[in-house]
Write a structure and sequence with these properties.
Bound molecules: manganese (II) ion
Strand order of the largest sheet: 3-2-1-4-5-6
Distance between the termini: 33 Å
Strand content: 15-25%
Order of helices and strands: HHEHEEEHEEHHHHHEEHHEEHEEH
Number of strands: 12
Helix content: 40-55%
CATH superfamily of the largest domain: inorganic pyrophosphatase (n-terminal core)
Number of domains: 2
CATH architecture of the largest domain: Alpha-Beta Complex
Length: 326
């Protein structure tokens, strides 16, 4: 670790392990509107620390209905503790505000250990364990446990497996390398419930299919970029929530000859969330940051008040401009 790294509070797996072991109480927080990487990573770390005798508080502002089957899910709390934890551990967040305002207010009064795989991480922690190339935060949690010799139980293995499966689209993305598959194999040896994870990641409901039919009816492929959008009203009509459309972008992303995808969702009246995916040669992370958002090079997002068709046009031309300059 270089001097610069130390100045930024960067730590390695062993040091992060020592920091956690030195604490009596640990709070683990992950981003609002979580997916299985955020929840699985939080639960895996939480269960491991409980086995080490720590007082653990696992916080997520929103929770995730489709992850309720994960072992230990009932430990997730939507409220914050009265006490100040010795270590405030933030997982899967590029910026501290991703955990929500109240969580961030408590965090800054504590010692923060930031564990993340986002390239754009703001290193907001007192200590930062950042592995930007990791395909999922779950991979970092696995290595943290393994390198410190902490026991990986069947329940912990299932949570980490879910985290990795989610962020790699069930091992389909180009981010999957031999290390990812080796870790997945180890997790299966530890007893990870692969079938339950797969079934849940592919889980569906009638309302989701109704929402999907609207989404599909609006697909447009513009210069090799697949696009679609949904209004708040579309969700309300079929009693669907944001969670229901979480993987829609991956569907259009998988269309043959498509090099990127854009999905615009209306969260509040007139306020839109834009999600983007791309092939390795395009950097949608840069585009997201231009609009005040964030994410990874090939998966990123931002909020805007610009209407769907207009913002889609803008982002498509930004992607095409990028390609011209390669
Ligand atoms: Mn993640």
């Amino acid at each position: 670790m270089s001097e610069d790294d130390k100045k930024n509070g960067r730590v390695d797996f062993e040091e992060a392990g020592r920091i956690l072991l030195s604490a009596e109480s640990v709070l683990i927080a992950s981003h609002e509107g979580p997916e299985a990487d955020a929840i699985g990573s939080s639960l895996a770390l939480g269960l491991a620390l409980e086995n080490l005798g720590k007082k653990v508080w696992i916080y997520n502002k929103d929770g995730l209905e489709s992850a309720k089957y994960l072992p230990g899910y009932e430990k997730i709390r939507k409220d914050l503790p009265e006490f100040i934890p010795d270590i405030f551990c933030v997982v899967d967040c590029a910026t501290l505000d991703r955990i929500g305002k109240k969580g961030a207010e408590l965090a800054v009064r504590t010692t923060i250990l930031n564990i993340d795989h986002h390239k754009s991480s703001e290193l907001f922690g007192t200590f930062n364990l950042i592995i930007p190339d990791a395909p999922a935060c779950g991979i970092i949690i696995y290595e943290l446990l393994e390198k410190n010799g902490w026991k990986i139980t069947k329940d912990i293995a299932t949570n980490i497996y879910a985290a990795i499966a989610k962020d790699t689209m069930c091992f389909l993305l180009h981010t999957v390398d031999s290390k990812t598959l080796n870790i997945a194999s180890k997790l299966v040896e530890y007893g990870a419930e692969v079938y339950r994870v797969m079934k849940s990641i592919r889980y569906s409901t009638e309302r989701k299919f109704k929402l999907l039919s609207t989404f599909l009816s609006r697909i447009k492929i513009i210069n090799g970029i697949a696009t679609s959008y949904l209004y708040k009203e579309d969700y309300e009509k079929v009693s669907a929530t944001k969670d229901d459309s979480e993987d829609f972008i991956d569907l259009i992303r998988s269309i043959d000859n498509v090099k990127g995808a854009i999905f615009v969702r209306e969260d509040e009246k007139g306020l839109f969330k834009v999600s983007m995916r791309s092939d390795p040669h395009i950097d949608v992370g840069i585009i997201a940051r231009e609009y005040g958002g964030g994410g990874h090079k090939n998966a990123a997002g931002f909020n805007t008040r610009i209407h769907p068709e207009e913002i889609i046009q803008k982002v498509v031309s930004q992607i095409l401009d990028q390609e011209k300059n390669i």
